[in-house]
Structure formats: C-alpha cells, structure tokens
Write a structure and sequence with these properties.
Layout: E1 6-7, E2 13-18, E3 22-23, H1 34-42, H2 48-56, E4 58-59, E5 62-68, E6 73-78, E7 87-91, E8 94-98, E9 109-110, E10 115-121, E11 127-134, E12 153-154, H3 184-192, H4 195-217, H5 224-229, E13 241-243, H6 248-260, E14 267-274, H7 284-293, E15 299-306
Parallel strand pairs: 11-12, 13-14, 14-15
Antiparallel strand pairs: 1-2, 2-5, 3-4, 5-6, 6-10, 7-8, 7-9, 10-11
Helix pairs in contact: 4-6
Length: 310
C-alpha cells in the first residue's frame, strides 16, 4: 500500500486512482505499487511529449492528478473509456479536482475523458490556461464533448489512443446458408462447423481468458484479513469474487476466473437480490444464481439481501 499524495524527491506530487495492467516497455514488478511505478516514470519526463507518451503507455483504467513541480504544471485526466471518476469545479482563480463529492456540491461536473489536460501555474499560485491534449483517434469529436464548466484550449499535440478504431472491420463474416433446424444445439454446432466462425469464437475465448487472467494476477492474492497480517501470497482464503446472477455472462466469467486461481483458493460468487413487495428475495437472478451455483466447483456462494434501508 502506498500513501497518497505521493511526493518524489524532486517535489513532484502524484494522486492516482487506477490499475496498471501493463506499461509499454516496462517490466512490471508485482511487488511495486502502481502509484510508485508511475511516479518513478513521470519523474523522468521533462517535456509535454514525454508525459503524454508515459500516460499513453498504460493499459488499464485510471484517473490521475500530477503536479509537476519541475515545470510548474498540473496534469490531470482519465483513461480513454472514462472508467474511473474524476470531477472538476473551476473558477477564474481556482481549480478543484476530486474523485467523489457530496450531492450538495453542485458546481462539480465529470471531467470529460477526451484526453490529458494540463494547466500551467505561476510562482504565486495563479492558474494559467488549461490545455487539452486530445486522444489522436477522436480529435474531430472533442468540440462536441466540451465541458461548459471548464474553459480550455485544444492543443494540436495529441496523446496516442489505446484503441485503434480504424482496425475494426464492421463487415460481417460471410456464412454459408444454414439448413433449417428446430434445435438450438444443432444450429450452434452448424455454426461452429464453419471455419471462419470457429476461428472467431476461439479468438474471442482467448481474449476473454487473457482479460480475466490480467485481473486475477494484478492483485495481491490475499483476503482482507491476510493483508493486515502481511501473510505471504497467496493465502488459502478467497481474494476474488464475481457478481453472479447465474446468467450466461457471469457463469462464463466465473468459470474463467476459477481457472486462473491458485490450487486450493476458492472463488466467491456474490448474488445480490432486492427485497420484493411481499418481503421475499426470490427474484429471478436469485433463483438462477442458486441453480447455476450447484454445478460450480471450488466456489462459495454469498447471498446478499438488499432492502430500501440498506
């Protein structure tokens, strides 16, 4: 665990809320926190280009605020998909950033995930012009996403987008006409008999398995009790859970997650149900969750009942 804000030896200050699954060109040490890893690499940046390249090299969800003392510049932003929250409130002489606020703080709005922002600071603490370095794949859409509570200029310099939109092919795979079938299983087997579709299914399975593996391996492997006692990883208790409705998606994710866990470490399946008018919790997701749990192994099921007072 790393206390934040993290201040390095040069006075640069980082506040980080995210996960670094991978960082291009960096051999990630699983014993080093993401915060110290990013702080170390940002501390070597001397130009805007280097900061943009550093942040573009990250694979994973993030929101960050970085005070670059060496250049008197404040950097802030969110990942391309906006998966982590970062709220902003600005006036001509003040800029406030927070990951969460109370409902009465109505001057805060969500910072658009349009790229990386910077703001120069004068020695007296006065704010300079806020500048947006947009993702290079969505430069044309930035104006329509402009946040009215924050005035900024758009730089001609961009940050590399993690998703190459031009690589997606919207065309469908040509498929041979299939004979009529009243059986879903028969139709599924006929589809898989086509090489193009069979290859796509295998590729999707590999990508999904790799994504789940990334989530499993980029965590301490310790439950909340063993974290406090600093037990060596992994502990024999459950440190991974899946929100489990018993539907197809959650069943597939639970299966793939159980594959990646160390032998002997169980997986927790969390099934949430909201109280009904009659006082019961037998909603469809609860019933399918219990039914699907019966065919899972190495799993423990936790039934979470929620009412209007929870």
């Amino acid at each position: 665990m790393t206390s934040q804000p993290l201040v390095d030896t040069m006075g640069n200050m980082l506040m980080w809320n995210g996960d670094i699954f991978r960082m291009s060109g960096v051999e990630k040490d699983t014993m080093e926190s993401d915060t110290t890893l990013l702080s170390r690499h940002l501390s070597t940046c001397q130009t805007p280009t280097q900061v943009l390249e550093c942040m573009a090299s990250i694979t994973g969800p993030w929101a960050m605020v970085y005070l670059q003392e060496t250049t008197n510049t404040l950097w802030f932003g969110r990942d391309f998909f906006g998966r982590q929250s970062l709220l902003i409130s600005s006036t001509p002489d003040r800029l406030s950033l927070s990951s969460c606020v109370t409902s009465d703080m109505d001057t805060f709005t969500e910072l658009p995930a349009s790229g990386l922002f910077s703001c120069s600071l004068s020695p007296g603490g006065q704010l300079g012009q806020v500048r947006l370095y947009p993702w290079d794949c969505m430069v044309d859409q930035v104006d329509s996403d402009k946040n009215t509570s924050l005035q900024y200029t758009i730089s001609s310099q961009t940050i590399r987008c993690p998703v190459r939109l031009d690589q997606f092919n919207p065309s469908t795979v040509p498929a041979s006409p299939l004979p009529h079938s009243d059986s879903a299983n028969s139709l599924f087997q006929q589809l898989l008999s086509q090489p193009d579709i069979d290859i796509m299914v295998d590729q999707f399975t590999d990508l999904l398995r790799a994504a789940v593996r990334t989530r499993i391996t980029n965590q301490p492997g310790l439950c909340k009790d063993c974290v406090t006692t600093k037990l060596s990883s992994p502990c024999p208790h459950s440190s991974v859970a899946v929100l489990f409705s018993g539907g197809l998606d959650s069943c597939v994710l639970a299966h793939l997650a159980a594959e990646q866990l160390p032998p002997g470490q169980p997986l927790h399946l969390l099934n949430v149900a909201f109280q009904q008018g009659g006082g019961g919790f037998d909603v469809p997701d609860r019933l399918t969750g219990i039914q699907a749990f019966k065919v899972r192994r190495r799993c423990g099921q936790l039934l979470v009942d929620t009412n209007s007072e929870s």
